[in-house]
Structure formats: C-alpha cells, structure tokens
Amino acid sequence: MKKLWWFVFISIISFWAVSCTNPFSPPEAGLGLIKPIAEQTEPDSVLANFKFAYENRDIDIYEHTLAPEFVFIYYDQDREGEIETVTVPRDGIGGDVYRTTGLFEAFDEIRLDTWQIYKSELDEDDPPEWEARLVIFHLSLKDITGNFGFLQMEATGRAQFKFEKSERDGLWRIIVWKDLTIPN
Q: What is the pTM (predicted TM-score) of this model?
C-alpha cells in the first residue's frame, strides 16, 4: 500500500510539472533573447558566431551578429560592364536577413573552410569607437538533396567587417559587412 501511495504521489507531481510547460510553444525571439554560441564581448567572437551561423544555417544566430543599422556592401557588374557599389539593408524584402534565409534554405552544406581574420583599420569617417576586421575566406555551397539541381558554388575573397558595441546590452555586432571581392 505504501508503494502504491508513493507511485500515485510521484505520478501526480510528474503530471503537474509537465502540464506547466508547453513544448509546442516556442519562446518569443528578438534581438538580445537569442543565445549566441560565443558571448559577443569582442569582434572576433562575433565572427565566430557568424561563421557558426553560416555553417549550421542558423538564421537566429546570424541575426544576433547584426546590428539593427547593419548594411552589406558589395561590388557588382552592371549591364554595361561597369563596376557599381550595391548596399543592402539588414531587414525587409530583399534585405540581407531575407536573402541569407533563402541561401540557408537553398543549400544543404555551407562551409567557410578558409577563414583568416586580421585586425583592420577603420575608414577616417567611421566613429572611433567602432572596430574593424579583414577576413580572407573561401565559401563553398552545395545542394546535396537536389532540390535546386544539385547546385554547387564556390567563392574566394576578402571582406571587411566593422563592429559597434551596443549601448543596450554591451555586446558587439556587425554594423557594416563590405565584400571587397571585385567581380571578373
């Protein structure tokens, strides 16, 4: 009888504990609520999270590395063969987060096998409290499942990342990502 009483007691406590949580209700996400892989206390840890997000196709970690005012800048060749500078904002249709989400969905394997980080100088018109890093990278993208025709792409180049420290939470985030690779 005593064993039966303990069994009933433990069953009721277990049922009560489980009923207080809903495993199908995800927590609300938002800037600052996402747990990064590395604490973003300096620019190199932000780049570690950035690389992790790319290779694991994790858009939440990726978004956490970006400042609200983030811009992506790259060079593109226009129809006349001239090189033009393109600036992409963080959010919105056609924004960097939107484009990166599509990239993460299209490719099953994303690798940044070469990822060398060097301290870089800021431009003279950048705020002095920012920091900058130059990264030499080799990016490979593979569609292994064939959802996009077994597409494989590679890119090698250089990029400059500029970082600012948030006044709100004291964490560093990327404010500017400038791809320095000039198209052929």
A: 0.78
